[in-house]
Amino acid sequence: MSSFVHVICDYAPGDLAWAEVMAALSAQLPHDARFHLTSVGSFETIAQGFVLAQLGLSDIDLRPENMIIFANCAPRKDRRAARANNEGEGLLYGRLKNGVKVVAVNSGYSLAFVRDEIAELWAVQVKDDGSQFRSRDYFPEIVGKAVAEEFSFRLGKLDAAAVVPDIPAEVIGYIDSFGNLKTTIRAGDERFAALNSGERIRAIIGGTVRTATVATGSFNVMEGDLAFAPGSSGHNKRYWEFFQRGGSAWADFGKPPIGSKITIERT
């Protein structure tokens, strides 16, 4: 059975880094392995975690068999002190309850959005220094072994609840190419359960205040209106998002970065 590898990295689309990582991965994987690449912004572990969950927790009918996710966003922020010999965050191997395998750098919120769905989590034996480009020089070998189910790289089992942080509350989790702001507020959250379709709210993001209409879908508002509604991400507990029909909610809010705090006030 051929493998399907989702690669999530914080390289710009078309960057040289992508070419080198993909070449190194291809050298370690079966010739019939298939790939899909998803780019997040530099050091954006929140976005990486959001994407990882959306891909990894997809329904069985919406993902290929024998899927593995390689998530590599390593801002080297686990320690503020200077690092010797380009040392970076460690690598983890996990298997989700649905069987999807994950190889991810242990950085920030990279695994936060799937923490409760992790069936097993392991520390990985891999060099973490000596290279500024570990995702090319060291990590592809681990991905190749995980695909082949050669687990000699596993060091020790970890408690996901102790290692992985909570999802950051009420922030921007992902910004798509349409400028929609996908938040970390989930449908069913009791703090927002009282919102009614058609109700007007005040939303504050990064000091910018806008009025939005609570909606049930992307086309329940007039062209140009800003809306707040459960979006297409989050599977059985969808995440609320801001969208502007015919425009960009991201631009309307002054282009806030991922991780920006969101305050919702009823008018």
Q: Widest sheet: strand order?
A: 2-1-3-5-4-6-7
Order of helical and strand elements: EHEHEEEEHHEHEEEEEEHE
Give Rg in angstroms: 20 Å
Instruction: Please identify the structural class as seen in this structure.
Output: alpha/beta
CATH architecture of the largest domain: 3-Layer(aba) Sandwich
Mean pLDDT: 90
Describe this structure in words.
- The protein is of the alpha/beta class and 267 residues long.
- The protein is built from six helices and 14 strands.
- The strands form two sheets. Strands 2-1-3-5-4-6-7 form a seven-stranded mixed sheet, sandwiched between helices. Strands 8-9-13-12-11-10-14 form a seven-stranded mixed sheet.
- A hairpin with an 8-residue loop joins strand 12 (226-230) and strand 13.
- Helix 1 packs across helix 4 (139-147).
- It is elongated and about 60 Å long.
